[in-house]
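dumping this here before i forget
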Amino acid sequence: MSGQDHSDPIETFRIEAADVLNEVEQALLDLAENPGDKDLVNAVFRGLHTLKGSGAMFGFDDLAGFTHHCESAFDQVRKGAVATTPELISIVLSAQDRMRALVDGEVDEEKQALILGKLSEAVAAASGQAPPASAPAEGEEAEGWRVRFRLPADCMANGTNPLFLLDELRELGECEIALLTDQIPAWADLDPRECHLGWDVTLKGAIDRHDIEDVFIFVMDDMELSIEPLADAPAETQSTSAPPSREAAATPTQEKAAVGNASAADGKAQGGKTAGDTLRVPAERLDELMDRVGQLVIAQSRLSQIAHGNIDLALRSVSEEIERLSGELRDTMMVMRMVPVSSLFGRFRRLIHDLSEETGKAITLTTEGEGTEVDKTVIERLFDPIVHLVRNSCDHGLETPEERSAAGKPEEGNVTLSAHQAGGEVVITIRDDGRGINRDRVRAKAEENSLIKPDQVLSDQDLFQLIFHPGFSTAATISNLSGRGVGMDVVKRTIESLRGTIEVTSEPGQGSTIALRIPLTLAIIEGLLVRVGEQRYVIPLSSVEECIELSLEDDMRHRGRSLISLRGALVPFLRLRELFTSGTKPDPYQKIIVVSTGAERVGLVVDQIIGNHQTVIKSMSAFHRSAASFSGATILGDGAVALILDVPQLVSLAQQQEERLQAAG
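structure:
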């Protein structure tokens, strides 16, 4: 078990604060694109207000004090006194980074003072730019308000006390309250735990509309609320407590609330899910459970092996039942660990925003396939490589606005992140519409570094793979964002550690595309257990296309030319017995297992196909990690160790072998 205490309220606050800050960041980035959206302004204000209050409650006084200044700034934005400028948003984003540090206990008064100084300047500048029309909101100068509201039925279960809201309204000015009872159900249908009442409140005096909205700020999204100036309210509705028909009284706020409630009702009707159906579980507990499932799968494999060698029918029956249950448990566990890539892509909006400012280029981010799901461990390890690739695309791939205009392109560059599932892999693509990779420059740099010979013929794919060589860079000058190639070796190592591959394509003037092919999971896979000589190996079943027989006569006939004809296409194959120097004679009837990665196919010759095998992947030791043909190991039912074949590496090896044979004629 992890030593971390998840019942610690401080740790709980930190987790919730991280969620709030993520929501604030997304709202700020949305606001940068839609500066006039009041809902986004309110969302930012609410998030900051919540963080300040929670921070003070849990003893994070520095956080509460620092956040208070940003909250105050957005309070002025909310009231129309300050315009939403890009400078203000950028500074609040920087302040948000400082808030994350404060949540982690890192106090740096100098940095905080610097940010607050810039915030004051931005607020002062933005208030001077604020258009007069945005100052007082419509109806703000009214001498009174009519406020009608209905809370959600489960408001009291969630801790909202309507009496406290009414008390706050009373504190604003002279107040008359009428109860709305038209939605109370029949006695037989009445649930005393639910709220079926509404309130019609008349407030008199010079009251700011925003002060009224502040009363409902934490429940506004889930309730029906109407705030109308008394001067605009129909006379008959002011003199009676009976409410007008809901259709006639519906304001935009009410309509939005009604739509939200209807959507929620539809959601419940369709999926039956509520907020209480979702449970937050620490990631290390999932990892621990995954490890237990892996041990169960190995034990089940051993039980199956014993049962198949036994004539006891009862034992066989139990073994089959355990196999079924462990398979279902494994599938359920795998689903629990899968998360959509939207959680990964969403983190790049901020990066693009910052890179756009840093490089002076207008850049938009487009995302596709955000619903594609990947194991959470894969998601976590993909972040850093993609950050590096996106930074390179923005800094080195995209042209300046002037260069793009001269080339007949829109001044605004685009970076696209997309994801889709292909068999047992997920393909994540980083694409830009920039200048593309300069082949001549890459080749010249490779020759200068003696990576290739001057007359060496290379395909585009092989040429572009050179940019992943350690220390390889084609940038004329190295900026703090670096040029394409710097650090790319780290990207390649990380992707290979995930058993993934990288494909690069580029067109001059059209941009570049880098595709990362990553396995969906790193924990348990379906494998095909095979025998080569006296050893057994596992081939990931997701890579297997088909199995065909290779007789001894056919094997002899193919000697010197390892190619088979498969429905009119020539497919190279590798004899694993020779590759692994098993030192045994081949079986009379060998098998060719055709595997693929991307568009490439290759055959692997084995002596025997044993069958499907649930494979719990174990990492190779540091001593064996250099063996490029294997991606890991697993424990079989009899306790023996079987190596897992690295299909992309074997396909690459077969392609190189075929190229050598073709070059030799």
